[in-house]
Amino acid sequence: GDGCGHTLLTPHSGTLSSKNYPGTYPNHTACRWRLRAPPGTSLLLAFGDVDLEPSEHCARSSLLLADPQAGTAYGPYCRNAGPAAPLLVTNSSTVTVLFNSTSHRSGRGLLLSYATSQHPDLVSCLVRGTHYTQEHVSVYCPAGCKDIDGDIWGNPSQGYRDTSVLCKAAVHAGVIADELGGQVTLSREKGITLYESAFANGLHSKRGSLSEKRLIFHKACLLPLPACGDALEVAAFNASSWWHEVDALGQDRPWAAERAALGTTGHSWAAEPGSEAAWLELDLGARRNVTGIITKGSSEQYDYYVTSYRVSSSRDGKNWRPYRGSSGQEDKVFEGNSDSHGEVSNAFIPPIVARYVR
User: Fold this and answer.
1) Average pLDDT of 4-13?
2) Same domain, 340 and 241
3) What are the disulphide bonds in this sequence (predicted)?
4) What is the mean pLDDT of residues 268-297?
């Protein structure tokens, strides 16, 4: 049977879990993962959770880590015989992870992350901001934390309640891509009265009350300035088409491209009704380092919004390159808005360097 749950494995880091985690894992299942590090490095394993039903010699459910080539093994582990430390340092570049279950009644199962020996500050997807007491924190978040169970409160501009799951908050803030993981640096500052919820980078955060501390993530900026947090000026807008609305009085109201600027009062830009493959183009006036985009619906008055979109860029306005994100395999589809009034942020990791963005 298939005991494999959420799995995201990359050459440098990844996360895996048993089926149904953190719900009880199924009876009579097995799963086998093969982890490989690049040549010249070895593997580190962070145990987020190992909650397998206790039994003598872990006979009912077990987690075993093995390197057959070196003849080394770690485990078997279960609830009454867990790992001695949350981080396991191996001398192996390949590790096989074996998970087995027989009949059992309880147990969340397992959540495990890994990285290469180049990242000794690897943390689990379950680590929260409250885990730390120091003012400045730098940790390595593994790939694959976005879809792990855990709550975050706050947003990229305000910061996050310190009870938030740290690596998931970092994905929401746009400082790392979930499919890559990466180094995260943050400050623990004084908490605020209320944290507003937001949808960003495919994740919903919650609205939260006062906390003692809040987490402020620091983005790694690329020169030249302006810095990552600054809104770029748009020199001109263009579009594939726009809607010429005729109102109740017979007057023409153009939903023209230049009305697409965030914060425009009244109606915004809209493509001509029925048009396919519509696009909006931003001319930034000069080549810029673009680290993300914020989208919003038309306004409170008009219930129009874009639910998903692709992005392409150009340095000369003639040759266009689709944005494929960190994977580089296929055009990235960004999750947009679900209503006409909320703002949605999406980060470009890596950033786009271009004058024109569509």
Assistant:
1) 95
2) yes
3) 4-31
4) 94
Report the CATH number at residue 171.
Answer: 2.170.130.20
- Report which residue type is found at 220: A
What is the model's pLDDT at position 226? 46
**pLDDT computed for residue 188 by the predictor:** 96
Q: Is residue 97 part of a domain?
A: yes
Q: Are residues 97 and 133 in the same domain?
A: no
**Domain match, 134 and 112 both:** no
Find the domain containing 42 and state its range: 4-116
Asked if residue 98 belongs to a domain, the reply is yes
pLDDT at 221 over 80: no
123 lies in some domain: no
Number of domains in the chain: 3
Mean local confidence (pLDDT), 225-252? 84
Average pLDDT over residues 25-31: 94
Domain with 290 in it: what CATH number?
2.60.120.260
What is the SS3 assignment for 17? strand
- Distance (Å, rounded) from C-alpha 158 to C-alpha 171? 15
pTM surpassing 0.70?
A: yes
Q: Is the pLDDT of residue 131 over 80?
A: yes
**The pLDDT of residue 225 is above 50:** no
Q: Residue 14's domain is classified under what CATH number?
A: 2.60.120.290
Which positions ≥6 away from 324 have C-beta within 8 Å?
A: 330, 331, 332
Q: Which residue has the tokens 């006062």?
A: 210
Residue 16: alpha-carbon gap to chain centroid: 16
Contacts of 143 (CB under 8 A, 6+ apart): 8, 9, 10, 12, 13, 14, 15, 178, 179, 180, 181
Buried b vs exposed e over 257-292: b needs ≥16 C-beta within 10 Å?
A: bebbeeeeeebbbbbeeeeeebbbbbebeeebbbbb
